[in-house]
Amino acid sequence: MTCDEARILLHALLDNELDAGHAREVEAHIASCPDCAAELAAQREMQRVLANTSLGYSAPASLRTRIEASLPQLQRQQPTRRSVLRGFAMGSAVSALAATGIVAIVLRQDDQQRILSEVVSAHLRSLQAGHLTDVISTDQHTVKPWFNGKLDVAPPVIDLTAQGFTLVGGRLDYIDARAIGAVVYKRRQHVINLFVAQTASTEHRPPKTQTMQGFNCRRWGERGLNFWAVSDIGADELAEFVDKFETAMKANVEG
Fold it and tell me: Does some domain include residue 67?
């Protein structure tokens, strides 16, 4: 195992997210590498400091008093029995009308969470030695043609090196029981997997960031494609990556 491979997996080792085999590989490398051992020690110290730091803030009791005093008198009055019954009746009617819609939303959200879980699992698999790329290149004109014939639609591949995100290659992966493209970038020593899948919808879905298993995932939809960008970099840096990717992609389409 190289230092680059070990450092990619250090966060997962600290959070007990590696299987026993890969944990032993990383630990064996650390035992023989002073630089990686020092990096692990530094990350453990940072984890300890953050865990012992009180980041919460309790508002003073006087704040509640000031808020209640600022409310209109009518809002502070106790509701009458009639108003309670009227509100209950109206709420029941609205609930009955919305029930089917709520069920559909819940099912859709459950499906989205399942897909997100598969995306994060694919990202974790890619961090194992030899799994990150099927084609290794920093040239977008090498990586993009590699996908031709392997997928119905080849994912957009954009060189963002000048913006601080280095293209390192691509691979085929599998999400929701179908093959999709994964374009791989690096930000310093951090891996960013950009998963791209074809979809029937052509509507624009604005980017949304979620966190799962310690990884940030930013997903969005554009021009019949669904995108998921996954990494252990901060949410703000991942948002920057997505913004620069979208800007460059639109410029390529318009050009």
Answer: no
Total domains, the chain: 2
Q: Does 164 fall in a domain?
A: yes
Q: Within this chain, do residues 131 and 37 fall inside the same structural domain, yes or no?
A: no
Cβ count within 10 A of residue 58: 6
Does a structural domain hold residue 231? yes
Q: What's 211's domain CATH number?
A: 3.30.200.100
Structure tokens of 78? 């106790």
133: number of Cβ within 10 Å: 17
Percent of the chain at pLDDT > 70 equals 80
Q: Which residue has the higher pLDDT, 203 or 141?
A: 141
User: What's the order of all strands across the beta sheet hosting 205-212?
Assistant: 135-136, 166-175, 178-187, 190-198, 225-231, 215-222, 205-212
Whether pTM > 0.70 for this model: the answer is: no
Q: 163: part of which helix (H) or strand (E)?
A: none
The stretch 13-21 carries a mean pLDDT of 75
Q: What is the pLDDT of residue 207?
A: 92
Smallest CA-to-CA distance from 133 within 147, 120, 119, 121 is with 147
Q: Find which of 43-57, 145-159, 192-206 is predicted with most confidence, using mean pLDDT.
A: 145-159
Distance of alpha carbon 97 from alpha carbon 117, whole angstroms: 32
Q: Is residue 57 part of a domain?
A: no
**Which CA distances in Å does 61 have to 66, 68, 71?**
9, 11, 16
